[in-house]
Structures are given as structure tokens and as C-alpha cells.
Amino acid sequence: MAPTPSSTTSTLTLDINGEKHHLSVDHRTTLLDALRERLGLTGTKKGCDQGQCGACTVLLDRRRVVSCLHLAVAAEGREITTIEGIADGDDLHPVQQAFLDLDGYQCGYCTPGQVCSAIAVIEEHAAGWPSAATEDVRPESVPPPLTPDEIRERMSGNLCRCGAYVSIVQAVARGARAHEEARTATAEEAAA
Ligand code: FES
Ligand code: FES
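That is the input. Now the predicted structure with FE2/S2 (inorganic) cluster docked in place:
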């Protein structure tokens, strides 16, 4: 039966991890609640539910957002990636592997958001975006290396109540190195 038009609900198609999901939502539904409560994608965590902890971070068109502050209706037509879509089958993403190898977590509640955020941080940095910790932000300046200070600043929206920050910074640094190696290998293959 065709959905009844309503001034408070909409029928959406959300593109999540490469799959289309059709659902009808109240316009006030956040992307976080749509993912968790409507679609069963509970890898994305709810911490504060007010944009302060980063536990709910997902990628929208490869850029990170806190899904508790993003309405589901505003995510239609965007490419949504949640923690469930980060690995390539059984092969973990290098950032996931680095978190695992370096114990970048304790209870793991913040980890999906940390991993999504870290992937976006690495891409932002590789694209030359400065952060508040970047000393020289002139457009012509050489992009700074992804130092621990840069990682701490860029990841500062993702809190960890277990305080696993030392290992998280190391994991992001290792993930960034893996990303750089993969980029170099791809460029060399293309040039060969
Ligand atoms: S649950 Fe979204 S920022 Fe905390
Ligand atoms: S690992 Fe427990 S909150 Fe971060």
C-alpha cells in the first residue's frame, strides 16, 4: 500500500554501506536512532546523544559527522558509512587492525566512533587540511606531519571514558602510515 502523506513523517531511502534501505521516519528522527533502532545497525554507539562524545560518529560522503545531531531525512542521497561497512569482508581496515594490535580500547564502547573518526582524520590530513594544532596554515605552506599533537587535536571530538588515549594516538598514527603506504603503492602501480 502506498504510504499516506504526512506532515510529520517521510519515506526515505538511505544508502548505508553500499546498500539501499527504505524506511518511513518521523522528521525528528536522528540518523543515529534510524541506524540503531530502525535498521539494527547497533555498531554505531549512543553516548551523550548531544554531540559531545563522538561515540556516534559515522561517515557521510567520507566526512565524519556525529549522527546524534544529524537528522535521518538530511542523510538521504548521501553515502553513509558506519562501522559495519569499514572492513572489506574478513579483512579489517588498516585503522581497525591498528586499534586491535595496539590495544586502542578498553571496554570498546567508543571504538566504532574512534575508528570512523580516525579514518576521516587521516584522509583530511592527507588532503592537506590544517587543524587548530597546525602552526603554519598559509595555503602555500607544506602540510605538517601527523604528529601526536596533531592527532590529539584532530581526534579531540572523540572521548574515551576508559582513557585509552595513549594507545588510540598510536593506532591512528599506525593507520596513517598504512594509508600512506597504500597510496604510494597505488601511485607506483599506476606509473609502472
Ligand atoms: S552520542 Fe553523539 S556525540 Fe555523543
Ligand atoms: S574504550 Fe571504553 S570508552 Fe573508550
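The longest strand covers residues 9-16.
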